[in-house]
């Protein structure tokens, strides 16, 4: 079973306020903050406060609502940040999915091109 908080996890430390972040949204279950190394003019990460490693650790029965809320938050935040011309969402999972931080996060990236090549 996954612990709700992993003391060695960088995003759990952000949730706990032990590492600073530029927050854009917070509620009981979710936190969103600016990525420290943005790939786009606006790049935010939406994470569950609970330590869930990746989508592999979710089930439709248990996590449908949480995952739906993470995705639904993306356009709200992008609009708040002035992104009106389009944005991308991405969730990397596991080593072959190029996930570097093993705490589930949804990237929302937008702003004027040409950052979004390919
Ligand atoms: P991944 O490759 O796991 O999908 O993406 C992890 C993301 O987390 C990267 O875009 C990286 O820049 C971001 N990141 C890593 N450490 C920190 C941090 O301490 N603070 C913030 N705000 N973002 C981080
Ligand atoms: Zn964590």
TrEMBL record:
Record-linked InterPro entries: Histidine_triad_HIT, HIT-like, HIT-like_sf
Positions of the HIT domain: 10-118
Family annotation (Pfam families): HIT
PROSITE patterns: HIT_2
Gene3D superfamilies listed in its UniProt record: HIT-like
SUPFAM superfamilies: HIT-like (SSF54197)
Location of the motif Histidine triad motif: 103-107
The protein's name: Histidine triad nucleotide-binding protein
Organism (species): Piscinibacter gummiphilus
Organism lineage string: Bacteria, Pseudomonadati, Pseudomonadota, Betaproteobacteria, Burkholderiales
